[in-house]
Amino acid sequence: ADNDLLGICTYLVEVVKEAGSIILTAQPTSLTVTTKRNTADIVTETDQAVEGFICERLTKRYPTFAFIGEESYKAGVAITDRPTFIVDPIDGTSNFVHAFPAVCISIGLVIGKQPTVGVVYNPFREELWSAVKGHGAFTLRPNGEMQKLPLVSAPLQGLRPACIGIEWGSDREGPNFELNLKVFTTLARTAATGGRFVNSLRCIGSAAIAICRVAAGQQDAFWECGSWAWDVAAAWCILAEAGGIMVDGHPGEWHPPIDNRRYLAVRPATRGQREFVEEFWSVIGDDRST
Ligand code: IPD
């Protein structure tokens, strides 16, 4: 039963919906917000409660699988070849404390370091994205039916007409922050001066939701340097199953450490994905080796 990937996905959908109701009952005004490293890096007791709930559900049902969660993660833990659930109980914690409804629960199952099952759920909007490797990616329509992704797969026309989702991470210094700044200012300046390179930049505050939007084809690409495995594990599977590509230092699988990674996601397209990646790096002027 442990290898029944479709069954696992169905179970994960049940779990995220239950976890979603915990999030919905929390009142942002009465939240205890704890700062981790700086004002941008925060956690609430709801993050911890939701992770505890998900961890209990998953480890009881799949006792042989490993579990990595944002709130219980200890530096030095690595992703191994073992089936591993990688969980962000609340992706978009800053949105959550501001009652900005781009918040999700993200559960990925990684097998042999490959994103294999992914479920992302935004309880505030009842938005759900899911995928199982080899079985396609889907999103929930307002009428309750699951719709196959992508919704848009027209050829990519390069950076110039592109709408790009960018996340900042919570670093406010160091190489990840500097690279994010460089990507943002390079693209933003050109967007502001007549769209020489990009049409628009979007920063929604949840990497998982942003990548799911790329999977759907609703944004052309996503960029972040410094995403953690729990921000991307589920959405990566959804993106890949929809026909999008994730480009980073180690395409397709993770190697330790699981942090400080750069991610460029490109939407499904009948052509132009690789050219898009080449153009992106030539404009940013950085190498891709780390
Ligand atoms: C964060 C969000 C944010 C991204 C950060 C993540 P969290 O997740 O996805 O958009 O920029 O890198 O850590 O802390 O809200 O779970």
Automatic annotation (TrEMBL):
Catalysed conversion reaction: a myo-inositol phosphate + H2O = myo-inositol + phosphate
Name of a matching Pfam family: Inositol_P
Binding site for Mg(2+): 70, 88, 90-91, 231
Annotated pathway: Polyol metabolism; myo-inositol biosynthesis; myo-inositol from D-glucose 6-phosphate: step 2/2
Swiss-Prot/TrEMBL cofactor(s): Mg(2+)
Any Gene Ontology biological process: phosphatidylinositol phosphate biosynthetic process
GO molecular function term, any single one: metal ion binding
Record-linked Gene3D superfamilies: 3.40.190.80, Fructose-1,6-Bisphosphatase, subunit A, domain 1
Keyword Magnesium (UniProt): yes
Family: Belongs to the inositol monophosphatase superfamily.
Protein name, entry field: Inositol-1-monophosphatase
Protein species of origin: Oidiodendron maius (strain Zn)
